Amino acid sequence: MSVSSAVQPKEMDFLPDHDHAGAVSPEFVPAFLNKSTGQVELSRWGNGEPASMHLIRFLPRDWAATLDSRGQVTKLLPSVVAGYARDGVFFTRTEAGL
Length: 98
Prior knowledge:
globular; two-stranded antiparallel ribbon; 5-stranded mixed β-sheet; 7 strands
């Protein structure tokens, strides 16, 4: 399920850098940005529910550099970056300060 129409890449107003502590603020949802297309996908479990961590297995197949024998994503294209979505905006890990 794509959320590309609701989530836009964050381009300005960077948040301070912090080390990733493993905990995600409730406002931030794990997401991925395909920099080539501008499309953003929330991280999801296999049943389509939003995941509480970054999972690549269920991202669109055309974002995959490699797939396993079951057709699941095992490696992402270099244009895909992990980050977070909040209030319809995509933030990189650095921007989110997580």
